[in-house]
Write a structure and sequence with these properties.
The complex is a heterodimer.
Chain A: E1 45-46, E2 55-63, H1 71-80, E3 91-93, E4 104-109, E5 124-133, E6 137-143, E7 148-159, E8 162-173, H2 176-184, H3 186-205, E9 213-221, H4 236-255
Antiparallel strand pairs in A: 1-6, 2-8, 2-9, 3-4, 4-5, 5-6, 6-7, 7-8
Chain B: E1 6-14, E2 17-26, H1 31-41, E3 48-59, H2 61-76, E4 82-86, H3 90-98, E5 106-108, H4 111-117
Parallel strand pairs in B: 2-3, 3-4, 4-5
Antiparallel strand pairs in B: 1-2
The chains are: A alpha+beta, B alpha/beta.
Chain lengths: ~260, ~120
């Protein structure tokens, strides 16, 4: 799926293999032909430092009472079935290798309220790089054009006698358009709905019914970074909209 | 919550510089220790906060998140205050490059080089 450099051999320092190596630009390979693969290849990775909007730390948690698996075992299942826990309107196209450091995945996302384009086409095509993965956690960073710049960490830990699965964002809206969606509320709401549903599905997979997802939002930096307003050039939502007619035509001709 | 596996000690080689010596594992559990060390290091007229990673054993992605959060706190005091780092192994220099933290934090091989660069 990817041509990212292979992490160092784990013999020297076991944790070295948990991290991806630096990449100048992302490149996807062997992504499913079902995916609409836009706005990933050739894009640089962005962290919270490179985004435009206010910096938020958003944490979603779900307790898994009665689940006797270890955090390691739960994370293993989560990694192997990552996209299956997403709401059905949103698609995660990972590699056959799965979620591993250095792997690039393509995301095809619906809009607010699960709105899709003609034929269920995504409103945003973007991606992520897996920057880190160990036994109990894994993390993504986002490419230029994504809705937000930053890191997302997925983890499981034992808390008060039960495993707790957590998704934590440290992000800024990538550009002024996305920041406007966050300020108006529907940007945050779209993310919240997605991750509440994902954690609920994860809990249900392990037999936990009526799970309650807890959420905590912390405004880490209320300032915007006007120097990053130029990020709007790569806006994946705008570009997906512009390319969609071409992409759909290509798919139709391929079928023919 | 797991127990913290990092210790942070603070030195003030000059009134303008505060050095945080980081020992052990920087993960989410190190948050309190790191932020308290920053509060201690940044009192008075501190213009430079130097994170000394020479005792770092391990840092995961949550640890990188902590460094980002600390950077934001330091930047609130910019241009009066800036964040530097030293003592990173080649592996962790690569991680700072991967996460593009190296674009916002001045990275030096040694404490002496970092302090010389800022005249501290």
């Amino acid at each position: 799926m990817t041509t990212q450099p292979t992490p160092p051999e784990p013999e020297e320092e076991p944790h070295f293999a948990s991290w991806a190596l630096p990449v100048s630009k992302l490149k996807t390979e062997d992504i499913s032909s079902e995916a609409i693969n836009l706005n990933v290849n050739g894009r640089r990775l962005t962290g919270p430092i490179q985004g435009f909007g206010q910096m938020w730390q958003k944490t979603y948690k779900v307790r898994l009472p009665g689940v006797s698996l270890t955090p390691h075992e739960i994370v293993d299942v989560w990694r192997k079935n990552f996209g299956k826990f997403w709401p059905k309107e949103n698609k995660f196209y990972g590699s056959v290798i799965g979620i591993a450091p250095g792997e690039v995945a393509v995301l095809n996302l619906a809009g607010p309220g699960g709105i899709t384009g003609p034929g269920g086409a995504p409103l945003v095509s973007t991606g992520v790089l897996v920057i880190y993965a160990d036994d109990v956690s894994f993390s993504f960073m986002t490419p230029e054009g994504h809705m937000f710049a930053g890191m997302i960490t997925f983890s499981v830990a034992e808390e008060e006698g039960a495993p707790v699965a957590q998704v934590q964002f440290l992000i800024r809206a990538m550009d002024p358009i996305y920041e406007m969606t966050f300020r108006l509320g529907f940007g945050h709401k779209t993310e919240d709905v997605h991750w509440h549903a994902t954690l609920t599905n994860l809990a249900a997979h392990f037999g936990v019914r009526d799970s309650k997802v807890e959420q905590k939002n912390t405004l880490v930096d209320p300032r915007v970074q006007w120097g990053e307003a130029k990020n709007i050039w790569h806006n994946a939502a705008v570009r997906t909209g512009l390319y969609m007619p071409v992409t759909l035509m290509k798919k139709v001709f391929k079928r023919g | 919550m797991s127990q913290a596996k990092a210790t942070m000690s603070v030195r003030k080689p000059s009134p303008q510089a505060g050095i945080i010596d980081i020992q052990g594992e920087v993960t989410a559990t190190a948050e309190t220790a790191l932020m308290e060390a920053y509060a201690q290091a940044s009192n008075g007229n501190t213009r430079t906060i130097l994170l000394n990673f020479s005792g770092l054993e391990y840092m995961n992605s949550s640890g990188i998140g902590l460094v980002v959060t600390l950077l934001i706190r330091v930047n609130r005091h910019a241009p009066r205050q800036r964040l530097l780092a030293c003592g990173l192994s080649d592996h962790y220099k690569q991680i700072f490059e991967l996460t593009r933290l190296n674009e916002a934090i001045g990275i030096y091989d040694t404490e002496a080089e970092a302090l010389a660069a800022v005249g501290g």
